[in-house]
Amino acid sequence: MGGGTTDIAVLSSGDIVLSKSIKVAGNYLNDECQKFVRSQYGLDIGSKTAETIKVSIGSLTKYPDERRMKVYGRDVVSGLPREVEITPEEIREVLKVPVSRIIDLTVQVLEDTPAELAGDIFRNGITICGGGALIKGIDKYVADTLQLPTKIGEQPLLAVINGTKKFEAEIFEQIKEANRHDDMMNRSR
């Protein structure tokens, strides 16, 4: 779950068996927070403020020590600066709508997955990576909704980079192996 898109994939033996993408991700969630504050409170806020709201009090499940957040912006009627207080519960409801679209696509991917992988998915579950993995309670929300074990990936913000490194290493190993094979063929001539 990145900034621009959420990619849902089923992996098996190091390969992608099936994948789908949706343009509902971090930036979209920020936009939804901005729209909510404007419609609910008549206050225009910037994208950085919206992201701060999402990161600071955004969640998909209730969490201990929930606190309101003061938000500053421009009143849409007067044009003057103004402050409002937003609750985690309000933002939770804002985030659940787009996240439900991601879950719907996840269900589609699971329905299209070959049946022989169902046991693996049931045992190994779902791993959430990217910035979206940092939304409080997303793992519990997905697990409760899909009734599958769900966890946050190790170093979720670095998942793409770390995966690319592993893929690069595999490619270099394949190239080395091909070169060794060519050398052996040339020596046997």
Automatic annotation (TrEMBL):
It comes from Zophobas morio. The keyword Nucleotide-binding applies. It comes from the Eukaryota. Gene3D superfamilies: 3.30.420.40. One of its GO terms (molecular function) is ATP binding. GO terms for cellular component: cytoplasm. PANTHER family: CELL SHAPE-DETERMINING PROTEIN MREB. Belongs to the FtsA/MreB family. It is found in: Cytoplasm. This is Rod shape-determining protein MreB. The lineage of its organism: Eukaryota, Metazoa, Ecdysozoa, Arthropoda, Hexapoda. Its main location: cytoplasm. Keywords: ATP-binding, Cell shape, Cytoplasm, Nucleotide-binding. It holds the Pfam family MreB_Mbl. GO terms for biological process: cell morphogenesis; regulation of cell shape.
